[in-house]
Prior knowledge:
Layout: H1 7-20, H2 24-35, E1 47-51, E2 54-58, H3 65-81
Antiparallel strand pairs: 1-2
Helix pairs in contact: 1-2
Amino acid sequence: MSVHLRPETEARITALAAASGVSVDDYLAALFAKELPENGPDSNGTQFQKEHGMWVYRTGTAMPASLVDDTLQAIRLQREER
Length: 82
């Protein structure tokens, strides 16, 4: 794979790698490993994982309980209106 960078971007990456005490190749490999999800991102860059046969959206932060409660309440109200 080849990556074409603007000279100023290449210089910044080279400086960051040097400051970290690693080669540019090793710096970029570590950067990509950290930034790329194992299961691949969807088109928006978010991460979905399949758990127990169901797709789960992972953001790295817990969903607030109030969001779950509000969603369940809205679903129950919609069902009652039918």
